[in-house]
């Protein structure tokens, strides 16, 4: 049976063939010209493609553990897709009218539902997210809960960010970047088209009110966003000294690869530090899984870090009250604060978790990554949780080096690094264990990772050094592609 990834590629290629995806110059609703146009209304003339899209959307929703009582299609292009998804899943559907009826029931929402029902919106294309937000307002006014939207194509022009600011998580089957990648690989578009669309995406981020987050047209003086500013320039904007150092290491080693060293013996840990070390900027440990831990292991790790010029991160995921985490950080057998440049922290306890950690490391150059979204299926990070966590990070720029998250809109500040786990070349998830993988290209281009975390893809490879080299090359090429979209503007 074809994999999800292959089925998605097929659909993208067919959409291009039937001209539902077009390249040229098109005037958009928001008044700018776009080199790409996505028009999924024509798909109703191709029932097989329509069915494939609906099936993929449903498979995608299941992969993301999206559950609901109602599906809501947004007129017009998404209606048939939502209807097929409803028929397949047996989840009932409601429909938002474009305008309230002027006669009869004057209903805004058609279909049967109960107040408090959880509703997932199905949309064909998202640009700024304004149509989805209008639908959310109407659904809320009728008593329905809306926390997520399923989208066929994300044009990557700010929709995800705008929706998440209003508490709605956007889950997109594919992005414009993904479409470019698939069509380029299939030989259906050339590099010039890819470059012009990338340049357009970078230069036309839109607020839901139609104003641009980036000025139009771009000028020499435009301050590029986190996603397009080169790491060298971002090092100057980092407030936390470890973030600045890490960015410099990344540039000097041309590596945005972090290896997740999930091994259980000291010898394997050191052997991995020696073999993968030359290719990584960051070496991530779970020191508590090492069965023969001793202080010597830390000395050996520090020596390897110095020899190969990488930083050490202990993925401890602190998640307790400030007083307790300060002890967990500095005491016990691992004495993490004495050797780990960086640690990971869950913001769930509130700001005290950071003040607690900070209180344990006066005078040391240390930093943390806040885990605001996880890569695992069914994780509980809601858009509100993500937004509140980002507020906490803003209060401690001296200690927060970056954010662990999965979506490109979460981190705006170029001085913060986005660290993203869930990366593998074959993209095969690990079943009931919950990990969800993306390709190196997607993680950097679509999901906005500055640093990608690769564990089993490297440590279970027959030759970890060669695997690390391969991941490093692919991840760095994706980063260069991301920033090059604005280099010559
Ligand atoms: O959301 C998260 C946060 C952390 N991790 C960690 O990353 C690695 C991933 O290992 P793989 O073998 O590449 O799946 C692992 O150490 C996790 O603890 C994550 O996966 N997701």
Automatic annotation (TrEMBL):
InterPro entries in alphabetical order: Aldolase_TIM, OMPdecase, OMPdecase_AS, OMPdeCOase_dom, OPRT, Or_phspho_trans_dom, PRTase-like, PRTase_dom
Binding site for substrate: 262, 284, 375, 435, 455-456
Single GO MF descriptor: orotate phosphoribosyltransferase activity
One Pfam family hit: OMPdecase
Single biological process term from Gene Ontology: 'de novo' UMP biosynthetic process
Its EC number(s): 2.4.2.10, 4.1.1.23
Catalytic-site annotation from UniProt: 315, 317, 320
Domain Orotidine 5'-phosphate decarboxylase, residue spans: 256-471
Highest taxon in the source lineage: Eukaryota
SUPFAM superfamilies registered for this protein in UniProt: PRTase-like, Ribulose-phoshate binding barrel
Pathway(s) annotated for this protein in UniProt: Pyrimidine metabolism; UMP biosynthesis via de novo pathway; UMP from orotate: step 2/2; Pyrimidine metabolism; UMP biosynthesis via de novo pathway; UMP from orotate: step 1/2
Keywords: Decarboxylase, Glycosyltransferase, Lyase, Multifunctional enzyme, Pyrimidine biosynthesis, Transferase
Family: In the N-terminal section; belongs to the purine/pyrimidine phosphoribosyltransferase family. In the C-terminal section; belongs to the OMP decarboxylase family.
Stated name of the protein: Uridine 5'-monophosphate synthase
Organism, scientific name: Cryptotermes secundus
């Amino acid at each position: 049976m074809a994999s999800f990834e292959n089925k998605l590629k097929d659909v993208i290629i067919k959409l291009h063939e039937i001209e539902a995806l077009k390249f040229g110059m098109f005037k958009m609703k928001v008044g700018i010209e776009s080199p790409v146009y996505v028009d999924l209304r024509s798909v109703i003339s191709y029932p097989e493609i329509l069915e494939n899209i609906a099936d993929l959307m449903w498979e995608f929703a299941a992969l993301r553990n999206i559950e609901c009582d109602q599906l809501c299609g947004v007129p017009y292009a998404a209606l048939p897709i939502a209807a097929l998804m409803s028929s397949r899943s047996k989840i009932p559907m409601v429909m938002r009218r474009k305008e309230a009826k002027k006669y009869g029931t004057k209903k805004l929402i058609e279909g049967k539902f109960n107040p408090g029902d959880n509703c997932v919106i199905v949309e064909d294309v998202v640009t700024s997210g304004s149509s989805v937000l209008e639908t959310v307002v109407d659904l809320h006014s009728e008593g329905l809960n809306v926390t997520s939207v399923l989208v066929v194509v994300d044009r990557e022009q700010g929709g995800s960010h705008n929706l998440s600011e209003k508490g709605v998580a956007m889950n997109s089957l594919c992005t414009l970047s993904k479409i470019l990648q698939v069509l380029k690989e299939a030989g259906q578009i050339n590099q010039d088209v890819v470059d012009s669309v990338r340049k357009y995406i970078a230069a036309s981020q839109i607020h839901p009110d139609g104003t641009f987050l980036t000025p139009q047209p771009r000028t020499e003086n435009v301050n590029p966003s986190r996603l397009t500013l080169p790491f060298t320039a971002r090092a100057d904007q980092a407030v936390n000294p470890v973030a600045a150092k890490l960015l410099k290491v990344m540039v000097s080693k041309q590596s945005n690869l972090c290896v997740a060293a999930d091994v259980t013996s000291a010898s394997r840990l050191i052997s991995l530090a020696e073999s993968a070390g030359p290719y990584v900027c960051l070496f991530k440990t779970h020191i508590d899984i090492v069965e023969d831990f001793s202080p010597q292991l830390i000395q050996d790790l520090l020596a390897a870090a110095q020899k190969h010029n990488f930083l050490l991160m202990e993925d401890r995921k602190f998640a307790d009250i400030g007083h307790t985490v300060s002890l967990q950080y500095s005491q016990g057998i691992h004495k993490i604060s004495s050797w780990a440049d960086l640690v990971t922290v869950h913001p769930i306890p509130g700001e005290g978790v950071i003040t607690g950690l900070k209180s344990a490391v006066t005078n040391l150059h240390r930093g943390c990554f806040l885990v605001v979204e996880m890569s695992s299926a069914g994780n509980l990070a809601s858009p509100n949780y993500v937004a509140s966590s980002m507020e906490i990070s803003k209060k401690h720029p001296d200690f927060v080096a970056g954010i662990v998250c999965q979506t490109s809109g979460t981190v705006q500040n170029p001085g913060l690094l986005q660290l993203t786990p869930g990366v593998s070349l074959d993209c095969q998830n690990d079943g009931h264990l919950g990990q969800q993988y993306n390709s190196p290209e997607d993680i950097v281009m679509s999901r906005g990772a500055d640093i990608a975390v690769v564990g089993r893809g490297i440590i279970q490879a027959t030759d970890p050094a060669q695997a690390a080299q391969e991941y490093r090359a692919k991840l760095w090429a994706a980063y260069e592609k991301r920033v090059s979209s604005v280099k010559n503007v």
